[in-house]
Amino acid sequence: MTPQITLYITKSSPYGHYVEIALRETQANYSVYEVDLVDKPSWFTEKINPAGKVPAISYGGSPAPADNPSPSSFKLAESLVILDFITDIFPGSNLLPIDPVDRASTRFLLNLFSTTLRTACVGIAALRESPEAVLHAIDKLQVHMPAPESLGQFVTGDTFTLVDAVAAAYLLRFDRCLERDIGSFPEGEGVKVHHILRTSERFTRYRAYLSTLAERESVKASFPEEQVLAQLRDFWVGNRASA
To answer: For 57-77, how does the pLDDT look when each residue is reduced to its tens digit (9 = 90+)?
Structure first.
């Protein structure tokens, strides 16, 4: 029997989303606790993550409520570290290849996607940068996305890996937020960039990949779209209003 797993997240965050996607891909039995980062409970920093950041997990230990986890449970934070841990405790999940060379190559792509997409996300969410930052990020990564004529649906081929989990969490947010002009950028700029992404031949490969990710059950089941967009609108557009 698998030890208990509790995932602490806020649904608006792509970091927690890609961790949850990974857990769903393993078919793990886990529970989710949403942490209010605006009114963060004291027990979270005291018992889960002293840094107060999500995502975080507790693993193992005796059965206990999420807000009072067993002292014997293992606590872990930092999203990419948690992804590594998930692949270790579920080695048959195929989220990382077994072959050392393929595994290293996938880790390289994971770092590339997470760094590139995170930078673009921070820019449009908080730094009031042009949403064209998203265009540049996607353009940089498109060479690694499956071509429409290729046999594989995902970045490394036929198998969904951690790279695809990270890509899904960011790309879905970019697509939905730009479509609704949600961001710290000037009003109206998001819709323009969304139109380019949805119509330009330059982004054909991206559109095919996004469609594949959006239909993945682990992605759909962990993405309550309206809740996520409402939370992001409050923060991202709030930054625009205060400019």
So the answer is: 999 999 999 999 999 999 999
- Contact present, 143 and 152 (Cβ < 8 Å): no
The phi-psi region of residue 135 (left if phi > 0; otherwise alpha if psi is between -120 and 50; otherwise beta) is: alpha
Mean pLDDT, rounded, for 123-132: 95
Task: Name the DSSP class of 56.
Answer: E
pLDDT digits (tens, 9 = 90+) for 159-195: 999 999 999 999 999 999 999 999 999 999 999 999 9
Q: Alpha-carbon distance 206 to 211, whole Å?
A: 9
- List the structure tokens of 166: 């990270």
Fold of 100-241: Glutathione S-transferase Yfyf (Class Pi); Chain A, domain 2 (1.20.1050)
| 206/208 Cα distance (integer angstroms) | 6
Q: Which CATH number fits domain 5-93: 3.30.2350.10, 3.30.310.50, 3.40.50.2300, 3.40.30.10?
A: 3.40.30.10
DSSP state of 172: H
φ, ψ for residue 75, nearest 5 deg: -110, 140
How far is Cα 23 from Cα 169, in angstroms, rounded to an integer? 13
- How many whole angstroms separate alpha carbon 18 and alpha carbon 14? 6
At residue 58, the 3 state secondary structure works out as strand
